[in-house]
Amino acid sequence: MANCPPGKRMWPELLRANGDTAATVIERENRNVNAILVREGSFVTQDLRCDRVRVWVSVSNVVVSVPRIG
């Protein structure tokens, strides 16, 4: 990720937070990314993108893994 724009890249403090709240915080703290809620167990592409943060959430919309750029 050396070519990614500057800014925050990981949000460990959002683990176990509400997914919608986490997405809002991520986009506020790094305006270069879009936070996307993804249900745990969903299939996603394996491409790495500097402008995307996947926020993995449980069925109850709780963040289940540390959100990070990718």
Description of the structure:
With 70 residues, the protein is an alpha+beta fold. It is 16% helix and 20% strand. The protein has 1 helix and 3 strands. The protein has one helix at 19-29; strands spanning 34-39, 52-57, 68-69. The chain has a 3-stranded mixed β-sheet with strand order 1-2-3, with helices on one face.
Quick recap of the structure?
By secondary structure, the chain is an alpha+beta fold.
Helix-strand blueprint:
Layout: H1 19-29, E1 34-39, E2 52-57, E3 68-69
Parallel strand pairs: 1-2
Antiparallel strand pairs: 2-3
Principal-axis shape equals: globular
Radius of gyration: 11 Å
Order of helices and strands: HEEE
- The percentage of residues in β strands lies in 15-25%
Name the features.
20% strand; 70 residues; alpha+beta; three-stranded mixed sheet; 1 helix; 3 strands
